[in-house]
Amino acid sequence: QEQLVESGGGLVQAGGSLRLSCAASGFSLDYYAISWLRQDPGKEREGVSCISSADDTPNYADSVKGRFTISRDNPMNTVYLEMNSLKPVDTAVYYCAADFILDATRWVPGGKYEYDYWGQGTQVTVSS
What we know:
Blueprint: E1 3-7, E2 10-13, E3 18-25, E4 33-39, E5 46-51, E6 58-60, E7 68-73, E8 78-83, E9 92-99, E10 117-118, E11 122-127
Parallel strand pairs: 2-11
Antiparallel strand pairs: 1-3, 3-8, 4-5, 4-9, 5-6, 7-8, 9-10, 9-11
């Protein structure tokens, strides 16, 4: 069965760090651009970061640039989101999504993309 599974969320104090993982099974992430998105209840879902399939070029929303780092480990079939200097506004459910045709260099946080696969989400809560 083809699926994405996120993990690594939790409760952390402001200024702390978390590393989210997005593990694929049933298909290879090598050929997919992978995005991380987040959604807080009552708010629209927003793109956080995206990494290309071709050369691992990362792209970030301005709100997380300099604090978050996206990376992939192809042998492990996993993409990571390292989150540092977390703020209460980062509180949300974080999702990873895979897109076979997305050009990550043209990805924008507010873009509406037809992702092929979605994970179930992992909760990140940052306390002040």
